[in-house]
Design brief:
The complex is a heterodimer of chains A (225) and B (224).
Chain A (H helix, E strand, L loop, with lengths): L8 E5 L4 H12 L5 E4 L7 H6 L8 E4 L2 E4 L1 H11 L11 H22 L7 H26 L12 H18 L12 H12 L10 H12 L2
Parallel strand pairs in A: 1-2
Antiparallel strand pairs in A: 1-3, 3-4
Helix pairs in contact in A: 1-3, 1-6, 4-5, 4-6, 6-7, 6-8
Chain B lengths: L3 E5 L4 H13 L4 E4 L7 H6 L8 E4 L2 E4 L1 H11 L12 H27 L2 H21 L13 H6 L1 H13 L10 H11 L11 H18 L3
Parallel strand pairs in B: 1-2
Antiparallel strand pairs in B: 1-3, 3-4
The chains are: A alpha+beta (225), B alpha+beta (224).
Pfam families (chain B): GST_C, GST_N
Enzyme class (chain B): transferase
Protein name (chain B): glutathione transferase
């Protein structure tokens, strides 16, 4: 349980960012209170530029005056600092490697493939849909192997890979609801379909990933409706 | 036969990171050389997602992606020194941050500067230097990024130590100059000569030939 006061831990971010969501979920798992400093879209605060001069991007975790950037690095930091709380990474080195591998896959391949899918048209959209679907099939396989019949990649509780992928699929299920595509498919990816619901309903996630209606609002705005 | 096998190519900088980690920690392993134009069925089986090297096989279980493998080595052989990551969580986060920064920024920009010409090359060099400044600052007061001994970030930046001079010779351009980056150049020399590391460098003339051919091919493909 964290003894530090709320002001000791700050998160610089914006609520829609799936990367920021990862950090907030991790802090919630550890029951760490934090101050959420929201950046205005389109401008970067002095604090952001000071605390992440290399990338100038959110999320940034500021803990006891020290800044840490890059969401998956932040999540591992949170796991290691608040070590008395529920573990985020599994204890076995091989299981940790598998989760790290797929988390990196989400960042390196899967998330980029999701970009602009909801605003794409025609052939371009079809190509993007195929790419994302291929990625989901791989992640479904990974889920089946990792979860071993339990609710999450991490087993009974959400863990590192759940946190890495959850916000992405939280958004994806909103994209699906917009119509025109069905990316999360009960036939092709039954495990993930169930998993994303369980993830979004989890105590540490609720309030970080808004209701699907709010996500749809943002998506509609992006589409220019 | 060692319980650890490493799939590599003779020149892969990513696979070399793993060679270094295993050598520096004194872990016994067998090397399996791949020809990426004719990948073995083993490689395809062990790394179906990326079909690339390096792959570490430990007691029959495969691990891919160099950063993931390095963390695995660190966490599995806990009695083998030196540690690649410090004990303090903030210092660990910093080591991981710099390593990621190297692959996200430095590697692609140096590569751009190597394969391009004219204005494109100039722009890539400017961007590379902008980013290398952070590394130069990080090296103040340190022999290695890991401190007294090589650490996680040193291994991931290690490619700078031998490839920069190869690229400079092939492209006929200075990529990292002495005046702007004295600490970085000292680090490169220290890493080049570090124990266990100095025996692992691929033959320089073979690298020159490889990268010369690659650069020529890429330049020929550029739209005029």
């Amino acid at each position: 349980m964290a003894n530090s006061s709320c002001s000791d831990v700050k998160v610089l971010g914006a609520w829609p960012s799936p990367f920021v969501m990862r950090v907030r979920i991790a802090l919630n798992i550890k029951s760490v209170k934090y101050e959420f400093l929201e950046e205005t879209i389109g401008s970067k605060s002095q604090l952001l530029l000071q605390s992440n001069p290399v990338y100038k991007k959110i999320p940034v975790l500021i803990h006891g005056g020290k800044s840490i950037s890059e969401s998956l690095i932040i999540v591992q930091y949170i796991d290691e600092v608040w070590s008395s709380g529920p573990s985020i990474l599994p204890s076995d080195p091989y299981d940790r490697a598998i989760e790290r591998f797929w988390a990196a896959y989400v960042d390196d391949k899967f998330f980029p493939s999701m970009q602009l899918i909801n605003t794409a048209q025609g052939e371009e959209k079809a190509a993007k849909v195929e790419q994302v679907t291929e990625g989901l099939v791989l992640l479904e396989e990974a889920f089946q192997k990792s979860s071993k019949g339990k609710a999450f990649f991490g087993g009974d509780r959400i863990g590192f890979l759940d946190i890495a992928l959850g916000p992405m699929l939280g958004w994806l299920r909103a994209i699906d609801k917009m119509g025109g595509v069905k990316l999360l498919d009960e036939v092709k990816t039954p495990g993930l379909v169930q998993w994303v619901e369980s993830f979004c309903a989890d105590g540490a996630v609720k309030g970080v990933i808004p209701d699907i209606e709010k996500l749809l609002e943002i998506l509609e705005k992006m589409k220019g409706n | 036969m060692a319980e650890v096998k490493l799939f590599r190519t003779w020149s892969s900088t990513f696979a070399l990171r793993i060679v270094w980690a295993l050598e520096v920690k004194g872990i016994e392993y067998d090397m399996i050389y791949e020809d990426l134009s004719n990948k073995s069925s083993m490689l395809l089986q062990y790394n179906p997602v990326y079909k690339k090297v390096p792959v570490l096989l430990h007691k029959g279980k495969p691990i891919s992606e160099s950063f993931v493998i390095l963390e695995y080595i660190e966490e599995t052989w806990t009695s083998k020194t030196p540690s690649l990551l410090p004990g303090d969580p903030y210092q660990r986060a910093m080591a991981r941050f710099w390593a990621k920064f190297g692959d996200d920024k430095i590697l692609p920009l140096i590569w751009e500067a190597f394969i391009k010409q004219g204005k494109d090359q100039e722009e890539a060099l400017i961007a590379a230097h902008e980013n290398l400044k952070y590394l130069e600052v990080e090296l103040r007061g340190k022999k290695f990024l890991g401190g007294e001994t090589v650490g996680f970030a040193d291994l991931t930046f290690g490619w700078l130590a031998n490839l920069v001079s190869v690229f400079e010779e092939v492209a006929g351009v200075t990529l990292i100059d002495h005046e702007k980056f004295p600490l970085l150049l000292t680090w490169m020399k220290n890493f080049m000569d570090a124990p266990k590391i100095r025996e692992t460098w691929p033959p320089r003339d073979k690298l020159i030939n490889k990268y010369r051919a690659l650069r020529e091919t890429l330049i020929a493909k550029e739209p005029k």
